[in-house]
Amino acid sequence: MSEPSSGAQATDRLLDLMARLRAPDGCPWDREQTPATLKPQLLEECYEVLEAIDSGSTPHLVEELGDLLLHVVFQAQIAREAGQFTFADVASGIAEKLVRRHPHVFGEEKVADATGIVALWHQLKKAEKPERKCALDGVPRALPALMRAEALQKRARQAGFDWPDAGGALAKVREELAEVTQEIESDRAFVAAKESKISATPELAEEIGDLLFSIVNLTRHLKLDAEELLTGANDKFTRRFRAVEERIKASGKSMSDCTLEELDAVWNEVKTRS
Fold it and tell me: CA-based Rg of the chain, rounded to a whole angstrom?
């Protein structure tokens, strides 16, 4: 059996299985689902695919890609039942878009390098979406905040609104940090008591949000991914915290029995080793 035939049969089987699960005598849970109720699971599956890629495990990636594909099939089946569209419409639509967005491969367009390809892609995309009047239109609000910040900044850059280099972005980080500091120190209770009894005012919250946005901008200029950087920091904190917890337990105490100074001393010791 040839590979294309095998692939087609596997796709048909998956579509048939999904239709069977949604049938009146199928699975009660599957029958109750709607496009909206499946959103949390769909998002979770996307992150599990990313985790599988990072793991370097081929079987794991195959499994997680299958789970993600199931959600595409699931959504298409629900739409098919409502007379809206089918899985074939989805596959055909993306195939046509690939051809349309690659005239340098499937047409006569000439592009010198990858930079030219990206510029052409955005030019074609803009022509296909005339309803988008602002350069920022089309960036999903549902994106994780760090990813959305980077996407918005990239769109702004395409429109010519950006720092020329990382120096400008770094200066902006310093400016925003100064504004956060000023907002904190303007808190009368903080100034009077000289301790961290800081009011979570709307103004302070806004300034911290601006600081976070400026940090994302700096990472973008440095060709880094803010989401991946924070994920790495989360992993490092988790690793070190577990080590601190294990050391405290080994001493016959719990973390709640220790003073902040004791915990900080163990943390610093762990930090030097990891």
Answer: 26
